[in-house]
Amino acid sequence: MVEKRVQPLARDAMAYVLAGGRGSRLKELTDRRAKPAVYFGGKARIIDFALSNALNSGIRRIGVATQYKAHSLIRHMQRGWNFFRPERNESFDILPASQRVSETQWYEGTADAVFQNIDIIQDYGVEYMVILAGDHVYKMDYEYMLQQHVDSGADVTIGCLEVPRMEAVGFGVVHVDENDRIIDFVEKPADPPAIPGKPDSSFASMGIYVFHTKFLIEELRRDAADPNSSRDFGKDIIPYIVRNGKAVAHRFAQSCVRSDFEREPYWRDVGTIDAYWQANVDLTAIVPELDIYDKAWPIWTYAEINPPAKFVHDDEDRRGSAVSSLVAGDCIISGATLSNSLLFTGVRANSYSRLEGAVVLPSVKIGRRAQLKNVVIDHGVTIPEGLVVGEDFELDAKRFRRTESGICLITQTMIDKLDI
């Protein structure tokens, strides 16, 4: 990893987080909230990772563009990210799609979500713009990417993740030369271009872009004047710069933040029920791939005032216990047994119930004798006494949202339809 400059570039940068996406592949989990607002890791929301990366990198001006069902997301940011102070040259702007440019126009694409707020960006007078997706889980120091951008003289620097070549078919893929200059950018190619010297690997775009602010504004205005544009970074802005300017790839491994316990660079798109369940359950491992206990790079979030978790009863078949599990504050495990499970704030698990591989969102009540395996339970659900999930796959599929790999998403609406 390269040495940082004495004077960090991050202090003259603005992080602009694109957080307007629905995340439809998460199904009912995003019926009431945008994907960046979905809970993750026992305490946080998904967006907290991008925001924490920006803050920990030294960036003190942040804007967040919201659109789809944004109330939960906005409320979270108002509560958990309200500590920025203008007198310290800090700012945190929540930028809903509010028809500021046209009375009939919402954000038409990711580029348009920045274009419509150009005046706000200009008011801050920042030298650099770091454009971020608000729906990925990772730890990254953006200062290294800013330094590469300046040193290379690039028009745009794109954060890139090295993936097995044939797994790149679902990504935007960058084709680079031996100097990491991008010579082509293709969305979801059937035959992804390989990294020079690594025929079995490709670079997938992480949706992270660094620009000089002046150049970005010029490009956004040019794109906005193009009637054939879809107003999107990945589809329009980036391919245009690749063809007509200088685009450079930044290797995630060079700026990924890792504690002593993290062996490989960690990045996850938790955009499906399976991926969301897996990433949360992975945290219950003895040495998880993602270290959320790393105090050198904290994941900032809304810190609720809650009592500690509580475990009660100690009979042979009625013992409040948890093995290889994460249990947040204000949970009461009353004679229930947990294994490889993650419980968010305020969960009540009652006697004789058993949870294995369960991701339980806040304020869920688990009835007595419930047996739940490989489930994601939405916020505020009341699980009836004696409910069994994870044993009869056909019955599960009729009652709940069951994936092909056997993970069941459970919502209150699904519970209300049960004939039990």
TrEMBL record:
Binding site for alpha-D-glucose 1-phosphate: 107, 172, 187-188, 205
PROSITE patterns xref list: ADP_GLC_PYROPHOSPH_1, ADP_GLC_PYROPHOSPH_2, ADP_GLC_PYROPHOSPH_3
Family: Belongs to the bacterial/plant glucose-1-phosphate adenylyltransferase family.
CDD domains in the record: ADP_Glucose_PP, LbH_G1P_AT_C
EC number: 2.7.7.27
GO biological process, one term: glycogen biosynthetic process
Start and end residues of each Glucose-1-phosphate adenylyltransferase/Bifunctional protein GlmU-like C-terminal hexapeptide domain: 307-410
Organism whose genome encodes this protein: Rhizobium tubonense
Reactions this protein catalyses: alpha-D-glucose 1-phosphate + ATP + H(+) = ADP-alpha-D-glucose + diphosphate
PANTHER family linked to this entry: GLUCOSE-1-PHOSPHATE ADENYLYLTRANSFERASE, GLUCOSE-1-PHOSPHATE ADENYLYLTRANSFERASE-RELATED
Domain Nucleotidyl transferase: 16-284
UniProt pathway: Glycan biosynthesis; glycogen biosynthesis
Example of a GO MF term: ATP binding
Record NCBIfam families: glgC, PRK00725.1, PRK00844.1
Assembly mode: Homotetramer.
HAMAP family: GlgC (MF_00624)
Pfam families hit by this protein: Hexapep_GlmU, NTP_transferase
Site (Could play a key role in the communication between the regulatory and the substrate sites) residue list: 67, 106
Top EC class, one word: transferase
Keywords: ATP-binding, Carbohydrate metabolism, Glycogen biosynthesis, Glycogen metabolism, Nucleotide-binding, Nucleotidyltransferase, Transferase
InterPro entries: ADP-Glc_PPase, ADP_Glu_pyroP_CS, GlgC_bac, GlmU/GlgC-like_hexapep, NTP_transferase_dom, Nucleotide-diphossugar_trans, Trimer_LpxA-like_sf
Name of the protein this chain belongs to: Glucose-1-phosphate adenylyltransferase
Function: Involved in the biosynthesis of ADP-glucose, a building block required for the elongation reactions to produce glycogen. Catalyzes the reaction between ATP and alpha-D-glucose 1-phosphate (G1P) to produce pyrophosphate and ADP-Glc.
